């Protein structure tokens, strides 16, 4: 309840901007029971909630990750599976949620923390928590859009129209920031009583190194030397090594609801289905996770055709109650994902703590365990679907794509990097290929036109089909 109150205190201020919010609170200055400046812990709570909810949100009005990976299909309104990214302003909505609702709160939290009374070690850990969470959001932005406003952001007194920084330059800076913040952590001291790790700084440290691992793997095809050193350094520094260490934002099921539940149950939407590609791929592998994830229709699993107006919702398999619970956590950097990243690292010849085949089996088993599949069934599945060294991109890519079902952003990184499974552009697509990035916010062309136009020209056009710098093949 204490953490819920933290978020509730600032929820009314979201969208108004922190400066507006602070002006509205000036009437409280003479009341010793109310703060005139929002505590940094409240601002962190808001940023954690906003970033987690909207990174994981399946709404057609936001990120669209589950459609980019073709794991979900639609029945009545196929615009999103036909890659219409304009009508509902998804690029604008995700951009604003990450910058205004998430990063802005973290930047203000850093400022406010400097005014709060703390011991040196606790202050250091709190600052580290804010920094790691900020890096996590920057990673989402740069891997969603490519070049983005970065170095000149959040300087309203100096710069109203921030430039778009080169995406690889941002990557290099994020890696440096991770190295610096990890070195600063005081493991024996607490941090915030936060909504993800509850102030456990060892877990925050492993999370930071796991972000570094993900950044490093994305560099594999464009800068293999830097990729190798980054990945090996992350693994050596300690990464997420169990489901208990995964980055999960937990919802209370009352005031705050899991975004899948919110959109499929609370909103009464009966038009999202597991796709035919997802269902048929898993059926072909005799995947026991189908029994956990999907319902049957007529005694069989039947997925919806991607990019088409499908028959009535009840004619298809549906997402089971496993995904439809209000209290499900948003598992945004899971143990299974980290395990697959290690397997890929080993397949590329990096020192990853084991052979590729062993790490692949560990990753598949981690996903099975996360989803309640028995050890016997997991062992049988690995034996029936072993690691294929001769075609490791397909072997790891398909299994990671399955394991990360309903974790759209994480899955999208794998499909872009490994090009497996093969995603076919639907016949009625609005694009010339499947999406490789999110176009820039339309508001940027009004408010920051010169810089966004320069960025669009630099990357080869502000199109969803323009590949990111690291997506070479």
From TrEMBL:
PROSITE patterns associated with the record: PROKAR_LIPOPROTEIN
Pfam families in UniProt: SusD-like_2
Species of the source: Chryseobacterium piperi
Record's signal peptide: none
Stored InterPro entries: SusD-like_2, TPR-like_helical_dom_sf
Annotated protein name in UniProt: SusD/RagB family nutrient-binding outer membrane lipoprotein
